[in-house]
Specification:
89% helix; flat; mainly alpha; 0% strand
Length: 157
């Protein structure tokens, strides 16, 4: 009982965060991908799944982890009354990401325009994933859930 009282806030934040992520996964894996499969040829669907996989790897490794590090380091930065360079780091790694993923898309025989658009989309998704740390810093997990509900609703039509 004492354990539950001690970690009640943490457990509720964790559960809300899991709900938010669950909504995102449902929107992508259960709604979006099957719909795309029914609308696309096997070759196009394979390219879409490959693109989504690249997007998820790049964004989770960079934007997601940068946001997590910011969350972990936030209290020590507040103690020192500094903001941190996380947004600058995101800006600095964005061209590096573009230089890495653009040739990958070209190598995978995506068109030049498609490669450019996919690279821009990955950069934007990376920023979105990093930006969720601002909600989490405020312990406002409901905004993460709302953001993912919008994603779910968009993928429902």
């Amino acid at each position: 009982m004492n354990f539950i009282k001690k970690y009640k806030g943490f457990l509720s934040y964790m559960i809300l965060n899991m709900i938010g992520f669950g909504i995102y996964i449902i929107a992508q894996q259960i709604l979006l991908l099957p719909r795309l499969k029914s609308m696309a040829t096997d070759e196009i669907y394979t390219n879409i799944v490959l693109y989504i996989s690249i997007l998820n790897v790049v964004c989770n490794v960079t934007g997601g982890e940068l946001g997590n590090v910011r969350l972990v380091r936030d209290s020590s930065y507040k103690e020192k009354n500094i903001i941190g360079d996380f947004t600058r780091i995101l800006v600095l790694i964005s061209p590096i990401i573009a230089v890495i993923v653009f040739p990958i898309f070209i190598y995978l025989k995506y068109s030049l325009v498609g490669s450019i658009l996919f690279t821009i989309t990955i950069l934007m998704a990376n920023i979105r994933l990093y930006a969720t740390c601002f909600y989490r810093l405020e312990k406002n997990y409901y905004k993460v859930i709302i953001q993912n509900i919008f994603y779910l609703v968009r993928n429902s039509f």
